[in-house]
């Protein structure tokens, strides 16, 4: 996936997230589940973008970057 595609997907997810929050209530289990999944997917997209940029900066092929599983991206330590 190219950087532009990743950024577009991030934009689409954040717009969907805003729509969910604009509903004014998050008591619906389906909405809460979707919000959680969107947050994980956003973390995965940002991680993928960072991987691609790091590879490019190291004069390596950014296309070898891969989406990491939820168990990895949700357990990063700052």
Shape: elongated
Q: Give the mean pLDDT.
A: 91
Low-pLDDT segments, ≥5 res: none
Radius of gyration: 15 Å
* Number of H- or I-type helical stretches: 3
Order of helix and strand elements from N to C terminus = HHH
- Termini Cα gap: 26 Å
* Count of domains: 1
Biggest sheet character = none
- The total count of strands amounts to 0
- Strand content is under 5%
What share of the residues lie within helices?
55-70%
| Backbone structural class | mainly alpha
Q: Secondary structure elements and their pairing?
A:
Layout: H1 3-22, H2 29-57, H3 70-73
Provide a compact summary of the structure.
This protein is mostly helical and 78 residues long. It has helices at residues 3-22, 29-57, 70-73.
Features of the shown structure:
single chain
Written overview of the protein:
With 78 residues, this protein is mostly helical. The chain has one domain (3-73). The chain contains three helices and no strands. The longest helix has 29 residues, at 29-57. The protein is elongated, with a radius of gyration of 15 Å. The model has no long low-confidence stretch (mean pLDDT 91).
């Amino acid at each position: 996936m190219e950087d532009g595609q990743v950024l577009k997907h991030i934009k689409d997810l954040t717009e969907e997230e805003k729509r969910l929050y604009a509903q004014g209530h998050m008591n619906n289990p389906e909405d809460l589940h979707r919000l959680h999944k969107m947050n994980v997917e956003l973390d995965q997209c940002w991680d993928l973008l960072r991987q691609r940029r790091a590879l490019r900066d190291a004069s390596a092929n950014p296309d070898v970057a891969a989406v990491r599983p939820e168990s990895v991206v949700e357990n990063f330590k700052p």
